[in-house]
């Protein structure tokens, strides 16, 4: 039996930075995921996260 797939749950935003996305500026946020250590935090585009987690 295969293990259950990992369901990502956003725990906290640790940091943010501005980057270029094509020809425009975009915000990236450093995401701390639930059940993962802070060392496994990842940079994600802010507006992409809003689509996935509208109630955060």
Automatic annotation (TrEMBL):
Highest taxon above the source species: Eukaryota
Pfam families associated with the record: Chromo (PF00385)
Record-linked InterPro entries: Chromo-like_dom_sf, Chromo_domain
Matching SUPFAM superfamilies: Chromo domain-like (SSF54160)
Sequence ranges assigned to domain Chromo in this UniProt record: 11-55
Cleaved signal peptide residues: none
Protein name per UniProt: Chromo domain-containing protein
Lineage, uppermost ranks: Eukaryota, Viridiplantae, Streptophyta, Embryophyta, Tracheophyta
